[in-house]
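Appendix B. Raw example, untouched.
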Amino acid sequence: MNTIVSLCKRRGFIFQSSDIYGGMNGFWDYGPRGVALKNNIRDVWWHSVVECPPLDKNGNPLRIFGLDSSIIQNPLVWEASGHAGNFSDPMVDCRITKMRYRADQLIAYVPENREGKSFAFFEDEDEKTISSKIKKCGGGKIEDFCRVSFIDLEVSSYKNVVAPDTTEVGTLTEPKAFNLMFETRVGAVVDDSNIAYLRPETAQGIFVNFKNMQDSMRAKIPFGVAQIGKAFRNEVTPRNFIFRSREFEQMELEWFCHESEAAYWQEFWLDQRLNWWKSLGLSADKINIRKHGRDELAHYAKDGNGTVDLEYKFPFSGEGFSELEGIAHRCDYDLSQHQKVSGVKQEHVDQSTNAKFIPHVIEPSSGLTRAVLAVLCNSYVRDDAHPSGFFLNFAPKIAPVKAAILPLQANDEIELIAKKIFLELRKKYAVAYEDKQSVGKRYAKNDEIGTPYCITVDFDSINGGDVTVRDRNSMQQERVNVSLLDAYLRDAL
């Protein structure tokens, strides 16, 4: 991860927000290449879900509509959805360091004989670090401890626990609920009457527009509504670069269907989403499918098919995997709650039977910013044959730069041809013009940012009209006539 983070800053992918002031934990800025990568992933998702949605079992395109709802909504939305009452996490504080931790993100190493010190760590802490701290603090060998979920510990045993950032026992407080929603105020008057919240998810903007979408688009069940947008969660311990942050972007689809078909559609979308991640180049052996246990189910999924997670093996995941996307059966919870609180009917009428029912919802929900991290980690390939010793193996369709135009030398005729190629290709593709440093260093730079192709204009190009096209992965070179470059890139990309 340190290598990825360093590369992201050095090559203009991702910067710490407010970096010149020491940064702000949990917030990140996307540089020129980072925003291009993020937008490319976003556009591929939007195209595959809204513009060119999957086909149903009869070979017909599914009906899925796009939406862009407001970040700030009526506070009653969050009361109806359950966020105001349920969107909180158990937090424990350290009296010495003043650090605060989510209890459900900690694990505890407890002596097998239940005597002596126990140790709390973050759930993704590597075993070497854990073993070193246990030994340093006089706990003995890691083999003498059993690993348990911290949240399962009795509060009375906290007096024997060493917190993650201390070497002393008994510094942790008992858990307290902490609401994750960012609070703000709307209007000029500062009092409790105008409190509002930054949305913690984009889904509710879809649910409160269900009737609008159904009426304006004459939509019949089943149909979907998709949205990409910012969400905000006041994470107490944002960690692992952009994996868990306080401001992030979500890509969510709410698929409205009859209860009797919910299981089928959940399986359908699980298959679709798995194939989509693979289409971005993610390695199949690094993706895991995990069904939530009953003790993990969200309040909206208690009576349904639950949630299935697609997980990815990030560098910080240790021997396991970390969540990439959830495909949840939200039942009819959200629409029923909004009908109850707003008093506005959220029913769908079956035209063939006149039967009224509140649709169930299948929700494939993923983080766009988390997708960026997965793609960066998956694309990093060590290869001593490359000038930099590595390259980013982006799928061409999401690469920030598709091709770099490189004049071999500072020569007027060569540069004229190179600039003409650049000015033509930029009309269709994200291309770059590179004329500084040696060709070898320019190759290395473009390998590092994942550019699939480098196009070099040399002296032979002046008379013959051919240029050298270098493939990023294989480093193989071939001569292509300038007149055929457009077609070559179209096919290659």
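End of appendix B.
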